[in-house]
């Protein structure tokens, strides 16, 4: 298929590379920032534009921009004959105003500097009509084995769950890194623990995998921890510990 990419950030970069590798033609890259547009266009060997009115029509136009920029882009493409989709997890499909529209949401964390294998990434689709859905499904199936149909309302909950599972978890890594730096330890010492924690939930529920002092509300251990913390990090520790204990306490026999 012929694809136009609107946006040149982390997701657009990874998705563009995956689509090109799958044999699709990237017709154009759009970004408000010329350096970003030029860099991705060079990577994908295609033309670019920084003029929103210069976005070319193609089989599918994929918008990967910040959520607050979607209404402007969606309105600008009102008259497009292409299937116009966005890639946002928490924004409804109807922010796009053209006749044929949809959502193409790969649920994963992306960084430009880290190439990623799309084959295992779940892609969640929504479309305004059956023909558009069929085309989006055909496109998704060339890069992923895990494709789902999901409406805008349910996708909001999916995205919320992803924020807890990914973004908040990564912030906890950040806090752990800060704590380790206080005593001159590298974050690498956490990696075996992080890897095993992730592996466990492939085989058991997150509730059953939970360990640590908060499960049993071991106040002796937790008070020693809070003595080492201050400010917001201390608040996070106490809130998380209480949440862990309460979620397990109400499920105990």
Please tell me about this protein's structure.
The protein has 253 residues and is α/β, with parallel strands linked by helices. It has 2 domains: 2-150, 3-Layer(aba) Sandwich (Rossmann fold), CATH 3.40.50.720; 156-249, ProC-like, C-terminal domain (N-(1-d-carboxylethyl)-l-norvaline Dehydrogenase, domain 2), CATH 1.10.1040. Helices cover 45% and strands 15% of the residues. Helix 2 links the parallel strand 2 (25-30) and strand 3 (48-49). The longest helix has 30 residues, at 152-181. The N and C termini lie far apart (56 Å).
Kindly state the number of beta strands.
8
Q: What is the residue-averaged pLDDT?
A: 95
Question: Termini, distance in Å?
Answer: 56 Å
Number of domains: 2
CATH architecture assignment name of the largest domain: 3-Layer(aba) Sandwich
> What helical percentage do the residues reach?
40-55%
Number of helices: 9
Tell me the CATH topology of the largest domain: Rossmann fold
Q: Can you summarize the main beta sheet?
A: 8 strands, mixed
CATH superfamily of the largest domain: NAD(P)-binding Rossmann-like Domain
CA gyration radius, whole angstroms: 22 Å
**Beta strand %:** 5-15%
Shape: elongated
What strand line-up does the widest sheet have? 3-2-1-4-5-6-7-8
Compressed to H and E, one letter per element, the order equals: EHEHEEHEEEHEHHHHH
Task: Produce the secondary structure layout.
Elements: E1 2-6, H1 10-21, E2 25-30, H2 34-44, E3 48-49, E4 60-63, H3 70-76, E5 83-86, E6 101-106, E7 122-127, H4 130-140, E8 146-149, H5 152-181, H6 191-200, H7 206-209, H8 219-227, H9 231-249
Parallel strand pairs: 1-2, 1-4, 2-3, 4-5, 5-6, 7-8
Antiparallel strand pairs: 6-7
């Amino acid at each position: 298929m012929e694809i136009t990419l609107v946006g040149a950030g982390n997701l657009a970069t990874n998705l563009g590379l995956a689509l090109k590798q799958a044999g699709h033609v990237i017709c154009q890259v759009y970004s408000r920032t010329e350096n970003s547009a030029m860099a991705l266009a060079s990577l994908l060997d295609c033309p670019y534009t920084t003029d929103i009115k210069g976005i070319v029509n193609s089989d599918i136009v994929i918008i990967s921009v910040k959520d607050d920029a979607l209404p402007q882009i969606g309105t600008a493409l009102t008259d497009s004959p292409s299937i116009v989709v966005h890639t946002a997890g928490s924004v409804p499909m109807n922010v796009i105003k053209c006749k044929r529209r949809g959502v193409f949401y790969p649920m994963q964390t992306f960084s430009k500097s880290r190439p990623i294998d799309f084959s295992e990434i779940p892609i969640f689709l929504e479309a305004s009509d059956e023909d558009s859905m069929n085309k989006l499904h055909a496109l998704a199936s060339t890069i992923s084995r895990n494709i789902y149909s999901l409406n805008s309302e349910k996708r909001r909950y999916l995205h919320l769950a992803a924020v807890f599972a990914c973004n908040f978890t990564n912030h906890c890594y950040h806090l752990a890194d800060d704590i380790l730096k206080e005593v001159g330890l590298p974050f690498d010492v956490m990696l075996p623990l992080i890897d095993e924690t992730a592996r466990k939930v492939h085989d058991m529920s997150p509730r059953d995998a939970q360990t640590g002092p908060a499960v049993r509300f071991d106040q002796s251990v937790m008070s020693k921890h809070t003595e080492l913390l201050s400010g917001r990090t201390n608040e996070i520790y106490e809130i998380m510990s209480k949440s862990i204990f309460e979620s397990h306490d109400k499920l105990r026999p």
